[in-house]
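hey so i finally got around to running the thing on that chain from the lab meeting. sorry it took forever, my laptop kept dying and i had to restart like 3 times. anyway pasting the input first so we r on the same page abt which one it is
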Amino acid sequence: MVPRSYVSPVRTAAAEAKRRQVIEAAAEFLRTEPLSAFSVDTVAKAAGVTRLTVYNQFGSRRGLLEATFDHLAEHGRLDRIGEAMMDPQPRQGLERLVEVFCDFWSGDLAVGRLHDAMATDAEFAQALTARNERRRGQIATLVERLSPKAAAQQRRDTVDLVFTLMSYPVFRLLSEGRSPADTCALIKMACADAITRISAGP
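ok and heres what got predicted. didnt touch it at all, straight out
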């Protein structure tokens, strides 16, 4: 007889608590310390755990960065993307999508640091690019619903423009000398203009 495996609920809960502890320490490190100092060792020290514990939980620096981004996305309410996609009015859905990402970009300093990490970690850059491409796909879906009869190139141009306007680099550039609210308002206005153009037709 093959022995039955047993997973202790207490041990599972403890492992999950330690995982959250490490992720929260990583996020706080990104908010307060130089990105160049971010490593498995420094985060382990900040979290009060061993280096081996971090490797067992996340596998690598990239795995830790990805888990931290997912944690910030959850707390930054990116779950609202689903609500925007299900909006029966695609124009309103796009406007809500812009609001979701404006809130996310401005909500936590660690989000910007994670985008900066793309320059120093090629594997993480690839993972974050894949996440960004999902955003492009969401925009494309809403644009298609908004103007199904528009020329393919016109829809593509609108998607590319809105995707770029909703990106973190554009948000950071426009936020110089502006409050987060004013920056978000400017991005929403620009996206609304792009959406109005495709709605009006050629």
